[in-house]
Amino acid sequence: MLTELLDTDFRPLDLKALDLYLSTVAQVRPDQLTLATPCPDWTLHGLLRHQVSQDQGFAAAARGDGARLRNWRNGDLGTDPLAAAKTSADLVTTAFAGASPDQEFILPELLDSGGFPAALAISFHFVDLVVHAWDVATTIQVPWEPSEELVTASLKVAAIVPTDDRGPGTAFDEQVPVPDDTAPQNRLLALLGRTP
């Protein structure tokens, strides 16, 4: 699975995941920003701010400046969360487009030292968008309808996410057990610690 991921250009998929995420964020009303999300300790405002910060951090990593944690922590929604989300999406898309396929991305939130191949790093951003789109949709009670292509690719990324360091304060919660015949999109959510 890892070899397949390393041989995949996730940039086109990341653009589609951004469309899914942004179309969900576009449905958020200002009075919903204080709602609790499926992510422990995050209001909807906090979740949207987190994704802006992630976009900025991944953009910095693509430019060779990912090691500084402040590049991952300065997301600001301002007075227009959708505009902030679109701006950070444009930033990370431009940075990914300029990245070399054999480049190493430094992701300090995931690895204390060393880095990840570009394809793998971009796959992490991609799967985060798909699942955070669900988090937002669930919070504001609107449909989450990723394409089969997004779900299939996300399942491959989710399959390599380590399971030994999960829970509060980590990137993903513990896996949720689901029956074998669970729909793929719900299996994806369960793999990444969400309750479908």
UniProtKB/TrEMBL annotation:
InterPro entries: CHP03086, DinB/YfiT-like, Maleyloyr_isom, MDMPI_metal-binding. Pfam families: MDMPI_N. Residues 23-137 form the Mycothiol-dependent maleylpyruvate isomerase metal-binding domain. SUPFAM superfamilies: DinB/YfiT-like putative metalloenzymes. This is TIGR03086 family protein. It comes from Actinomadura graeca.
